[in-house]
Design brief:
303 residues, alpha/beta, Aspartate Aminotransferase, domain 2, two-stranded antiparallel sheet, 9 strands, 31% helix
């Protein structure tokens, strides 16, 4: 125990911390890594200096590491954000214009605020202002066992279910949901998506799950995985949305401007966007945080 505590600086303040469901403590090695990156610290994709090119290479490599960490094909599947909540909101805004009158979204009563409030707001506040009625339906949880009522979930998912949103592991109950079964329910819905597929999209809130499980996104059949690196030893400020590439290409970006615009592609009457993943990378990113996040999770040992 003493050897483990020695790896962290929080112990120097006499602290005892058990709040890993909210955030973990960054180890000394990751803090040292950020210091080692600092001498060549420069903005990415925005200059010819050696420092900028060096930092850009390191930053882009984090996308490859994160994709490999969760079994995604490559960097084009990764969107870096600040946290899981922002990742879920990214999905909400990118799908905003795809919802049709009479659609529904299915989630569960075990969701935390981050995977409930965006869908509540979309159905009850945002889409009504655009003249579209989309309903939000909630699958039950067994009051005694804390387990998801899979049969009730399946009864709610139908040919008008655009999206299912489900936590992988509840941060309150500790329940781990049967993701393969949930994915099968979404796949069988029959909803006609823009690309011609007949299935519901599936978003998995993986904030409590990715840090402690081996993840294969493709095997899961998920369309979106959302998680935060501050729950797996990295400093605050970096989360990830990992999505099927076609979901990102068929949707509109969440944020506009900066590096998400194509080089030379901005004119008075025309704007073209960058290739993935940079199409979803507007503005200056958390460069040092991304490097630490990759080392904390998928990347090489920070030491």
């Amino acid at each position: 125990m003493a050897a483990v505590r020695e790896r962290f600086v929080f112990a120097e303040a006499g602290r005892v911390t058990t709040n890993n469901a909210a955030n973990t403590q960054p180890p000394r090695a990751l803090l040292a890594l950020m210091q080692r990156l600092a001498p060549l610290y420069d903005n990415v994709h925005r200059g010819q200096p050696t420092a900028s090119q060096h930092t850009t290479r390191l930053f882009e490599a984090t996308y490859d590491d994160i994709a490999a960490f969760v079994g995604a094909p490559g960097r084009s599947n990764v969107v870096l954000v600040r946290n899981t909540t922002e990742a879920i909101n990214t999905v909400m805004y990118t799908l905003l214009t795809q919802f049709r009158e009479g659609d529904n979204i299915v989630t569960t009563t075990m969701e935390r605020n981050s995977n409930f409030v965006p869908w509540f707001a979309l159905c009850n506040q945002i889409l009504p202002r655009l003249g579209r009625r989309v309903s939000l339906q909630l699958a039950r949880v067994d009051a005694l066992s804390g387990e998801l009522d899979l049969a009730h979930l399946a009864s709610l998912v139908d040919a008008r279910t655009k999206l299912g949103a489900c936590t992988a592991a509840s941060n309150f109950l500790g329940t781990q949901n049967p993701l393969a079964d949930v994915s099968a329910v979404a796949a069988a819905s029959g909803y006609l998506q823009p690309g011609g597929e007949r299935r519901s999209y599936l978003l998995i809130d993986s904030a409590q799950w990715v840090p402690s499980h081996a993840v294969d996104m493709q095997a899961l059949g998920a369309d979106y995985l959302a998680f935060s690196f501050h729950k797996m030893l990295a400093p605050f400020g970096v989360g990830a949305l990992v999505a099927r590439e076609e979901r990102l290409t068929q949707s509109l970006p969440f944020l506009y401007g900066g590096d998400m615009a194509d080089d030379g592609g901005v004119c008075a009457d025309r704007v073209s966007y960058n290739d993935l993943p940079w199409e979803y990378a507007a503005g200056t990113p958390n460069i040092l945080g991304a490097g630490a996040a990759a080392a904390a999770g998928p990347g090489p040992d920070a030491e």
